[in-house]
Amino acid sequence: MSYIQARNLSVGYEGEAVGEQINFTVDPGDYLCIVGENGSGKSTLMKTILNLQKPLGGEIIIGDGLKKNEIGYLPQQTPVQKDFPASVEEIVLSGCQARCGLRPFYNKEDKALAQENMEKLGIDFLKKRCYRDLSGGQQQRVLLARALCATRKILLLDEPVSGLDPKVTAEMYELIRNLNKEGITIIMISHDISAALTYANRILHIGENIFFGTKEEYLNSNVGRAFVISHEKEGEDHVG
Prior knowledge:
22% strand; 10 helices; alpha/beta; 240 residues
């Protein structure tokens, strides 16, 4: 059974739809990339999946034993968040809040989980450092470790490599791929179509045209071919 099903979903805000008639499924172990032009509703869709805002139409069904507090989320960072004056350890631990329920304090299991995820992402040596003093790549690793503290099942990542240099971007993609290989389901918004086609097994394209299927089907579709060609041309223009 699927973790997530979207049926005839419409998303938007203040009653204004930015994406309509969206249908897709996310099964355990999937690596789904959400692509589309700027303003097509990718982040709005992700917030709707997370129940941070209500759908304007259709429905999202959570299944296969997945609970809403078992979804890890790495949002796009704002300048204010990048300047947050807390230690790395405190931020990673805060990912355990949904597990705490009514408990007012973190217990030994929470602290062990935070330690495990800091080690997994290679940031254990930074745990006493202030988050605001870290590089962009280190901050993203901290936020990914935080998201992992909320889940062992599924991660939602909103452009996790935005603003990172090519070397750090490649490292981040490799980390995410390894998490997927370990059994964590990935839903990732990406503006990098070549990375999406490298790592994902399924593509959801939203915008004027909607597509959902395997990456092979996407490359053979009119929607996919047109989008890839337009991005290749953009890349050539930037180089020129």
